[in-house]
Amino acid sequence: MLVTDMRPLSMVDDQGFKEMIKQFNPDYHDNYLPGRSHFTKLMEKKYDATFEKVKQTLGGVKGFFTLTADIWTSRATEASLGVSCHFLSEDWKMKSFILDTMPLEERHTGANIVTWMEEVLTKFEILPAKIKAVVHDSGSNMVAAMRLLEEKHGWASIRCAGHTLQLIVNTALKDTTISRALGAARQLVEHFKRSELASTRLKMKQEQMNVKKNTLIQDVSTRWNSTFHMIERLLEQRWPLTATLSDPEVTPRGKHYFDLKPEQWVLLEELKQGLAPFETATVYLSGQQYTTVSGLPQVVKGLTRAVHQSQLETSSGKSFIASAEKGIKQRWGSICTFSADKENPVILAAALDPRYRKLKFLAPEDVIRVQGTVEVLAVKEANAGTHEHAKVQTANGSGRIEKTALDNLESDTDSQGDNEEAASKEDQDVQVVRSEVQLYFKEATVSKKDDPLKWWSENEGRFPTLSKLAKSFLCIPATSTPSEWIFSTAGNICSQKRASLSAEHVEKLTFLAMNNNLV
After folding, report:
1. Most buried of the four, 174, 418, 468, 478, by CB within 10 Å?
2. Which residue range or ranges hold the HAT C-terminal dimerisation domain (predicted)?
3. Can you name the residues that pair with 94 across neighbouring β-strands?
4. Cβ contact 380:318 at 8 Å
5. What is the extent of the structural domain holding 466?
């Protein structure tokens, strides 16, 4: 209960909890139930066991990992770094673990973040070479850290698509008229949240008008789509709201300003239409049970098209569309372009997704270049596998035969022949890989509704080298949502009543709450 339901450890000392136990066991006495210190020790023991299970599971993963990273500050103004780890299992299932909510006591500089990230990997005995990419927010300190990690370890840096959407939408909503309309909408919602009378009368009007009995939604500044949900709910409840506000018992004379002006309702209708494609993109890209990063270029293209085709008539609506189009182009322009200077994991993931392998979002000449990059990576993957196999054979003593004197005299000739044979074998292996890559890109794309991971599970035998590459790239999430979930959980654990918890206990309780059902 303490872990699963995120209850405070002090709950076992509360009178209400003791009374509940008495209901189950009338013979219960207060001194029978262990106190907080006992359950704290049990929690720490469970943490140690779960930690070992997670570390053991990660140690058995053959492929690469992707990390997500975010920084959060608790109610007690203590900062923590949240790190989650993602990979594809042997049977092509998306897997993830929360690694840490590390308390941060020093300045959040790029160099310090690098050190903290490396400490997390050391804690779980994960080699830096096993990390393919890190998904993170757009904060200057985090961007600086990722630049350093890319230089030091070769990790790809991917900015969270969710944060990017947040920045695009927030900028587009800065129009003065839009800001005023949203301010009035928030005030209206707040009025019904605060007034019990208004809330009760609203339910009556919903009943009379046969409108869904849904409550109003208050948006939060850190989640742009909460603004969309607030607008959507207000429009759904417009007439019951207006009828309630026109009741003199609910709204005294001179207080009718709570209702929105007709032109503001019109603007909310347009904003709902303009924001809808962004909501669709946010929901899709935040998914955790399916691969998302490979679909990002298509989502960006689709979002651009949907925004451009939006037919909003008010000047503020048109301002929103113009700003949104500009934001998409500025922040995501490089997503759909190929650069020979730098590996783009998003485009490579799309190339290795059978739904998008034709790369229709790229120019024809860039498609050829991406296919060439995939071929180069596949050859490297095949060579790495060959060298690893050779190491294993050597370690096992395979092929060890005592040389005679004649063998030594003939060694130079044999060595030259062996080298030529090895070179010929390597050329053959390279050609096999090239044929594999050519066959993959030659085949038709599968339906957008198909599961690419299921496809790879069924076709892994046909594409043995490419399948390893696919596991490296398709495990990358498009957003750092998992890291944000850590802090949502940590926020529950650090609620007002539990704000006095030590940073260490917050870290352990969060780790248990997030990983309890995963091992």
Report:
1. 478
2. 436-512
3. 88
4. no
5. 337-392+429-479
